Amino acid sequence: MQRIRLRYTKRGRLRFTSHRDFQRAFERALRRAEVPMAYSAGFTPHPKVSYANAAPTGTGSEAEYLEIALTEPRDPEKLRVLLDESMPRGLDLVDAVEARTTGLADRLQASVWELRLDGVTLQEARGAAEAFLAADSVEVERRTKNGLRTFDARAAVVRLEALEGPADRPGDTACAILRLVVRHATPAVRPDDVLSGLRATADLAPPVPAAVTRLAQGLLDEETGTVTDPLVPDREVVTAAPPTAAGQTAATEAPPAGGVAQEGTA
Amino acid sequence: MPVESVFPRLEALLPHVQKPIQYVGGELNSTVKDWDACDVRWALMYPDAYEVGLPNQGVMILYEVLNEREGVLAERTYSVWPDLEALMREHAVPQFTVDSHRPVKAFDVFGLSFSTELGYTNMLAALDLAGIPLEAADRTDDDPVVLAGGHAAFNPEPIADFIDCAVIGDGEQAVLAITEIIRAWKSEGRPGGRDELLLRLAKTGGVYVPRFYDVEYLPDGRIARVVPNRSGVPWRVSKHTVMDLDEWPYPKQPLVPLAETVHERMSVEIFRGCTRGCRFCQAGMITRPVRERSITGIGDMVEKGLKNTGFEEVGLLSLSSADHSEIGDIAKGLADRYEEDKVGLSLPSTRVDAFNIDLANELTRNGRRSGLTFAPEGGSERIRKVINKMVSEEDLIRTVATAYGNGWRQVKLYFMCGLPTETDDDVLQIGDMAVNVIAKGREVSGRNDIRCTVSIGGFVPKPHTPFQWAPQLSAEETDARLAKLRDKIRGDKKYGRSIGFRYHDGKPGIVEGLLSRGDRRVGAVIRAVYDDGGRFDGWREHFSYDRWMACAGKTLPAQGVDVDWYTTRERTYEEVLPWDHLDSGLDKDWLWEDWQDALDETEVEDCRWTPCFDCGVCPQMDTEIQIGPTGKKLLPLTVVK
């Protein structure tokens, strides 16, 4: 049995896809592409797919991960192209490796998030970020299935910086970008929890909902606060070459062109 | 003139609503065509939530048929839930299509498919959100033509004030004919405006335009007559019938949604129409004659559909699927073909007398044998003669015995309450039937854990059926009868615990009855309910009986009628019915004779296997029964790797 790990995106309007929706769509794409899937045993066999740490509904992502088990070996790159063609545009399969190691889920230690705040100036964003980072703890509330829950959103935040918004925006409206590195912990701290925290500590209240995108997930370097490609160990075994520059830098750079928030204008 | 997408404005609202994915489109096999390259543009709506509307076969078929044509474009729109509706009103975002998020008002035609009358308030909500005047009389040349179709359109009179026109029957060819008329009218520079276009449509005899007919009433409230008020407009409007389903293999590329919907499977319509002659069944009466898709045509559709969708279940749809002349070979052929691929087959709507265990075994080759569903509809032999559902209790017991003996553990039985001539005793016999089923099941399976679920709802008399003259049972009497049955089942010490009892109270049926057999005066009730906030009437959590009754109480008495007049009143032979000028092909005198036969407990055979009984459809519509067997078989698929 061969296991293949795939990185996929949730771009443009398809960021509103929930994780359950994605699962159904992906399993149908597997059938359309006639991928020789391994099935679970039992009364109602399911194709063997494991998903890791899915982004919340409504947030975009450049770095979601899953693993599939096949009964016959396939070339990972050819399989990726086939599946990518079979999936709707926006749910794009962008990377594939054969699994040579265990513990992909354990390597997803932290996420890099980008929050686009339309109507917020760079100064406002920078001030809020500084106030947030200066606090020892930032209590926020979130509604969960079990009612309202209060927890600290500060400790999990490794980095938080404010950047100038993209140059191509219409007119001279204010726009700031927050770049956020969050450690995966329990309870999970999500970008909207950090936004709640920014409101609590610095009264930051964006006039329109923030457009949130996960740029990367992977191993966290606690010293530098950088997040590195979690598929590198699988690649290393194959190539026996040093980690590629692409694998490392992709994590902290902007998403590929044509990515976030460009669809939806059709 | 370019039409802009409203998506950027909608997108800002989506983070605040439930299940935003239902509003973003992008489904697999959906189509986006160049607006400016098309000269006739349709917005198609199923007036319910996306999760119900998306799998609708009718909309899916017309969407594909229209989009396949050069210069024609069709996009889809569904009802938005109240959370988004409120935000759209606050931020002035209009009703949009999910394909390109264009405003519905920008299209030439706004076509709505009504499977049920309970979508009428949702139509008003969509019109209002679209910025289209609710009343057809207030519309201008800038508004789309509002067109109703679907089974409920066989009596469009309650919505006559809100629609510009209605089409009854099969839509495939009708939408193309309408498209050509609109195209010609537009290319001529829209002579005579909206009025001229509607007149051209009406003159075909296949499009009903309510404004070209005047309804005159008698002093007692009944209709005196319905008269065309323009020259060239026919007295009666005909239904459309597609012959040779193999020439119309739609949907070829079924839509695959990202959002979860009520039917997560690929559906293939294996035949259209039914001549079993169940007297309560509007679908069976208005879709005649029976037209089968061939076994090879079905095999083709399944093969292409599965390839295009990746679904893992195929539903073989029709009004009574086991009645296909080659159903055994179809089921076996498909089960053979897809045994390795883990594709499940399902056969909704199976009659007790057409069920056979070989068929059931083929259908469940891959899956588990959880439950079988049958619909005897009536509890006593007598009432089943009245409704012409010729299923004997012996048939049923024999069938369930086989099923329990072959590993099934659960049988669901569907019934109706409030059928014409029904007494308490007819309904109480449902309890006896369930007991006999359990007793037989325990005997043949040797187990005590088998179950039978009785599901029962109130009967609503429908237009174009022999029961169109019948009195509907009041909600109170329906509830009282159901309570007696419930007590009888619960009181059975030996078998009661093995029998599940599910029922719907009689109130929603009264509103459905008002809308089903209503006339133009009922439009004011629908409008009042909408104005008072009524939406999603098919959903228990949104439906309000009290609101409907309050609004009816405000609007109907001025016309000398009330809800009982429309529902529990029995009609006479002479009465002009509101839908008499809509021709379903059924001869009104034959329907009356069949109604009299019902009262005499006389049954009628199926004309597929016995001589024609002159219901009128084939000669009136110039159609014929199209059934097999073709003698062909489904060969194994050649696997190309």
From TrEMBL, chain A:
Region (Disordered): 243-266
Biased composition (Low complexity): 243-260
InterPro entries given in the database record: DUF2344 (IPR018768)
Chain segments annotated as transmembrane: none
Domain (DUF2344): residue spans on this chain: 3-191
Name of protein: DUF2344 domain-containing protein
From TrEMBL, chain B:
UniProt-listed SUPFAM superfamilies: Radical SAM enzymes (SSF102114)
InterPro entries recorded: CHP03960_rSAM (IPR023862), Elp3/MiaA/NifB-like_rSAM (IPR006638), Radical_SAM_N2 (IPR045784), rSAM (IPR007197), rSAM_horseshoe (IPR023404), rSAM_sf (IPR058240)
Domain Radical SAM core: 260-502
Domain of life: Bacteria
Gene3D superfamilies named in the record: tm_1862 like domain
Record's protein name: TIGR03960 family B12-binding radical SAM protein
Species whose genome carries this gene: Streptomyces lycii
